[in-house]
Amino acid sequence: MTRDYKSISDEELLNYEDAQTAIMDRYRRIMQHRNNEVMLQVAKQLQGVSETVYRASQLADARGTQAIAKVDDFIGKVDEAMSKADDAIQRADSAAREQKRQQKVMKALTVVLAVSTVVYTIINGFTAYEAYQANKIQRELLDHSRSTP
After folding, report:
1. Is the whole-model pTM more than 0.70?
2. What gap in Å lies between CA 147 and CA 81, rounded to an integer?
């Protein structure tokens, strides 16, 4: 009766030196069967590795898509901020031009006010002088009318 092929060691298979072809053929089949079992085991492990790699690539793809979406969102916000900054610069430039015009008007009004004040002072001085002269004439007339009987 032949032994179970699983009980035959690799040493016995590899070191068999007899010339009996039936046993040699049996050992060859056993080695081929063991080789097939190992290859099936390797194939299962490779399948597990490929599934893991596939899941990792799916995760990397999802993360990449999220990163791209975040970058796109950030770029949109930067564009919006730049647009707002451009608008603010334009408003500041417009306000500066308007302020320059207002300053010119204020200078002109200040000059007009100063000239008006000088003219008013001259007129008031002239009026005061004329009132003094009128009072002097009235006093002289009053003095003259009192002195004549």
Report:
1. no
2. 94
